[in-house]
Design brief:
Mean pLDDT: 83
Distance between the termini: 38 Å
Number of helices: 26
Strand order of the largest sheet: 2-1-5-4-3
Length: about 800
């Protein structure tokens, strides 16, 4: 398909035939795409590589311009570059841009374009080269996403990254999280980075410098925990992991590392350890006062309750251990002092009874339970934690316990809950008063035995409840079940029971259950109402011919609602399970458009709305309206879409009918006036843009009024419709023929000059003269007068051409009719 494109000078110089032949050979066999493009942007020559990259054949490309295959978002940039070439701003340009392949796929290319000029400097054509860089762009995009994910992960993990030069003793680079960890705003950095040393905690500076110096000297990786002091005075714990870059010399000069802020972890270790001890002591000692002793600083810290019991205020007892020991009874002092001297690594619980003087001078007995919670490097206890009981005021403690019990009952009542116990050995059932009250019973109801309680349970739920109570040995887990129970009024109430075993025999078998019930009757009623509402929605969807679907992009599997079978015209066994199976149902003319929309919208995670056709199993074509949107974004990066399909076949049929009525003359089947004028405006713009010819014919049936007067309007209508059929059959498929009023008709002939238009008019009038107008009575020969014109370069609108063609038609009538007149 290569035609000689080398320009010769005005004398026809052909002194370089070998060079021209080599050019054609290189053009055709090049591994990259090459094309000759006209100044109007249309392709004049393309090689095989260009066809392979774009997916078009050579013939198809020669009918297109470069803008036709350019991605819409890249068109303006390309136009600007082309204009710069023509203006002589640059001899060529290279740009990365996107083409739309014939199948609708987007392909990234590296485009180089040069402008060929003749010896006089006049622009002749463009020479373009393209390389497919789609894989590279995809890799770059993947790399950007990976880098962004890494940066986000480092930020979330409070992980700083840095590179350090041993010889320069300074940072070469670091990420923003490194600076944030140091308490420095990244935007505030000016000049060189000084590294970690200025922020080291005084107590950790020496160890840090020695550890890093030893690692650098040995060329080995280093792991170190230390503290820093931020500019705002905050102390943070950091974990530094670094290793040398083997490629930076011997010994290595460059070190790469990460710094993580582990302050929270350090604090949590201490907090969790303290809470663990407090919790265990609380469980062992019930509700008691709390205290701590720091054996390193010999300070004593007691809770406010401790001071309150003794009658002192919050500051009434000194924090010094010796001051506190000064309140201990003399007979108990030495024993109290010795009790806190524990052996190394002693984590056992200890007890001490002692007397202590209250503010009013009386002695009060305390039972103390305590243990060591912190140790030094040699295992010696450094901190004690304990709880004390005032064993002289049991009644006060009993009152306090009662208050807690009342608070618990209020909480249960507010939450619609009630507690119960079940003794599996004696089969006795003990519901709380609140449990009975939720059912409308008083405390006199007979429900102390399991059989009495089961008698109130719904018959369908009794066996399931009995099975739920049959727990395996050593089962300490929580369990739950739902059941119905009859209230005093005879109605059934739904309960959610949550329970677990609290006592076991010697073989680990549960002997006692404790539980709590929640009245979930209202929730069950709402669930029933929701199911009913869903049923109504499903019914409405069936009536409206709407089905709903859900799809996860990773698995590409579909989940359909009930109406899908009817809408898609398939049985349950024929329903598509995957996106690929569903794509096979789409009408072949719509497949590429729908696939492109799926790629654009689903990969971007955006909502979309599509109308397209499918083939039902019976071969019928149905129109569907699909709406989709993001339903859920999953942790693995996949996206679930949900949406609906509506059968809009009836509305599309009606729409097509209305469109036909709006553009076609109902009597003759030709286009109407509005239709041809709209298309003429578009065709005029195209003809002017590409400098293509465009002609018009104005036709008028001679003496048509006589047909109506002599034979009636029925015969007149038949003449009009027959005339339209004859003319349309004589014209090309690309020509447009319209009735613009009465017996007047207008034809638009694209890609047709004035002489060709006159020939077409002669052909039309000849067909009209020879046409058989089968009417009774016979009406004789039918002729037509024709005006012909073609667009001029100065025609900005179609009206100018229509005025000329009207004048030409008028002359044809004035000069005797049944003739053709043209106006240039």
């Amino acid at each position: 398909m290569i035609r000689p494109m080398m320009q010769r000078d005005a004398t026809g110089d052909q002194s370089h035939p070998q060079w021209e032949e080599r050019f054609r050979s290189a053009f055709e066999t090049a591994g990259h795409g090459m094309a000759i493009v006209g100044l109007d942007g249309r392709f004049l020559e393309v090689n095989k590589a260009w066809m392979t990259i774009t997916g078009y054949s050579g013939k198809e490309l020669l009918g297109l311009d470069y803008q036709s295959i350019t991605h819409p978002e890249d068109s303006a940039l390309h136009v600007a570059y082309m204009q710069n070439l023509i203006a002589g701003v640059a001899p060529y340009f290279t740009v990365e841009k996107r083409y739309i392949r014939k199948g609708g796929q987007v392909v990234w290319i590296l485009l180089t374009v040069g402008l060929i000029r003749d010896p006089k400097g006049q622009s002749l054509y463009f020479v373009s080269q393209i390389q497919d860089i789609t894989e590279r762009k995809q890799f770059e995009d993947s790399r950007r996403q990976t880098q962004a994910a890494l940066a986000q992960a480092q930020k979330l993990a409070q992980l700083g990254y840095y590179r350090w030069s041993r010889s320069k003793q300074r940072l070469l680079s670091c990420n923003d999280e490194y600076l944030r960890i140091l308490g420095i705003a990244p935007a505030s950095i000016v000049g060189d980075l000084t590294g970690m040393e200025p922020y080291l905690h005084p107590e950790d500076r020496r160890n840090f410098i020695q550890a890093h110096g030893a690692a650098e000297a040995e060329g080995k990786a280093c792991r170190l925990e230390f503290r820093i002091v931020r500019p705002d005075g905050a102390i943070r714990h950091l974990l530094d992991l670094n290793e040398p870059d083997p490629a930076s010399g011997t010994p290595p000069d460059i070190w790469s590392g990460t710094v993580q802020d582990i302050t929270w972890q350090k604090e949590q270790v201490v907090v969790l350890q303290a809470y663990r001890v407090r919790l265990e002591l609380t469980l062992e000692a019930a509700n008691a006062t709390y205290w701590e002793v720091d054996l390193t600083n010999m300070t004593y810290t007691a809770s406010a309750e401790y001071s309150a019991i003794l009658g002192y205020g919050a500051d009434g007892i000194s924090r010094e251990v010796e001051a506190w020991l000064g309140l201990i009874h003399p007979d108990d002092l030495e024993r109290a002092r010795q009790s806190y001297v524990l052996p190394p690594n002693d984590e056992a619980n200890h007890k001490l009874e002692y007397r202590i003087r209250s503010k009013d001078g009386s002695w009060r007995w305390f039972l103390s339970q305590y243990r060591a919670c912190a140790f030094d490097d040699l295992g010696r206890p450094t901190r004690l934690q304990g709880v004390d009981f005032d064993i002289t005021i049991q009644k006060q403690q009993a009152a306090r316990l009662q208050a807690y019990r009342e608070r618990l009952e209020l909480a249960l009542e507010a939450g619609g809950a009630a507690n119960w116990e079940y003794d599996l050995t004696t089969k006795s059932y003990t519901p709380s008063p609140e449990y009975l009250a939720t059912l409308g019973y008083g405390t006199d109801v007979k429900m102390q035995e399991a059989e009495d309680w089961l008698a109130h349970v719904h018959p369908d739920d009794r066996e399931r409840i009995g099975q739920s109570y049959a727990l395996p040995p050593h089962d300490h887990a929580s369990h739950q079940f739902e059941y119905r129970i009859r209230s005093k009024g005879g109605t059934w109430r739904w309960h959610l029971g949550q329970f677990r075993a609290c006592a076991f025999d010697d073989f680990g078998r549960p002997t006692r259950l404790v539980g709590m019930d929640f009245d979930i009757t209202q929730q069950k009623q709402r669930q029933a109402e929701l199911l009913e509402a869903r049923a109504r929605v499903a019914d409405a969807a069936n009536r409206a011919k709407i089905t709903f679907w859900r799809q996860k992009s990773g698995s590409m599997s579909h989940v359909w609602s009930e109406a899908a079978e009817k809408i898609l015209g398939r049985s349950a066994a024929q329903m598509p399970d995957t996106a690929e199976q569903y794509r096979k149902l789409i009408y072949h003319e719509d497949v590429d458009r729908v696939a492109a929309a799926y790629i654009q919208n689903r990969e971007q995670g955006s909502a979309y709305s599509l109308e397209y056709r499918i083939l039902r199993s019976d071969g019928a074509v149905a129109w569907l309206h699909e709406i989709g949107e993001v339903d859920q974004r999953h942790a693995d990066g996949s996206i679930s879409f949900a949406g609906s399909l509506q059968d809009i076949t009836e509305s599309k049929t009606l729409e097509a009918r209305l469109e036909l009525l709006a553009t076609v003359d109902e009597l003759t089947g030709a286009h109407n006036r509005r239709s041809i004028l709209a298309q003429a405006g578009i065709e005029l713009l195209r003809a002017r843009r590409f400098n293509h010819p465009l002609a018009f014919l104005s036709l008028d049936i001679d003496h048509f009024k006589q047909f109506n007067d002599r034979f009636g309007h029925k015969i007149g209508d038949l003449v009009l419709s027959t005339f339209s059929d004859v003319c349309r059959n004589a014209l090309r498929p690309s020509d447009i023929f319209a009735r613009i009023g009465g017996e007047e008709f207008l034809a638009m002939l694209p890609e047709t000059g004035l002489d060709q238009a006159v020939s077409a008019a002669e052909r039309l009038t000849a067909h009209v003269r020879q046409a058989a107008f089968s009417v009774d009575p016979p009406i004789g020969k039918v002729t037509a007068s024709v005006g012909v014109t073609a667009i001029r370069g100065a025609d900005d609108t179609i009206e100018a051409a229509l005025e000329r063609i009207d004048r030409a038609l008028y002359r044809a009538k004035e000069l005797g009719r049944d003739r053709i007149e043209a106006e240039v």
